[in-house]
Amino acid sequence: MSDLETSQQDNQILVIFRKAPAGSAWAREALDLALVGAAFGQKVSLLFMGDGVFQLLEQQNPKLIGQKGTQAMMQALPMYEIDNLYVEGHSLVERGLDLEQLAVNCQVLNADEMPKLLQQHQQVFNF
Predict the structure, then answer these.
(1) What's the pTM?
(2) Could you read off the pLDDT tens digit of each residue along the chain, which spans 127 residues?
């Protein structure tokens, strides 16, 4: 059984990351929402697409532009039982990235799988 075949009751919140990790607070706010939801017993899944895939890269240095990084928060996801991480394959290809460059393990989704993922979640937050 793949992660996409779990029941809707098991996947309550989906947080979608569409923005790059630097230059705004969107990525940090999305991670805050995910961690708070998980801390209150919600089942949380994360989807990275568009420039949001850059959130998954290792060796980011946001201090160079005066921002706090999110890498420590990303590494804390397993402690909050946030295990369902997805990345849109087309977004990786468009940006010349592959799975080996990502700091966390993600399941790659194609365009056909996206609607099914969205339908499985009771709440979807888009950042």
Answers:
(1) 0.84
(2) 455 555 545 559 999 999 988 777 888 899 999 999 999 999 999 999 999 999 898 766 555 555 565 677 788 899 999 999 999 999 999 999 999 999 889 999 999 999 999 999 999 999 9
Cα gap 83→81, rounded to integer Å: 6
What φ, ψ does residue 88 adopt, rounded to 5°?
-75, 120
Distance between CA atoms of 20 and 99, rounded to whole angstroms? 17
Find all residues with CB under 8 Å of 57, minimum gap 6, and list them: 97, 101, 102, 103
Residue 71: how many other CB atoms lie within 10 Å: 18
- Domain 3-126: CATH architecture, name and number where available: 3-Layer(aba) Sandwich (3.40)
Taken in order 44, 38, 21, 28, the sign of the CA dihedral is positive
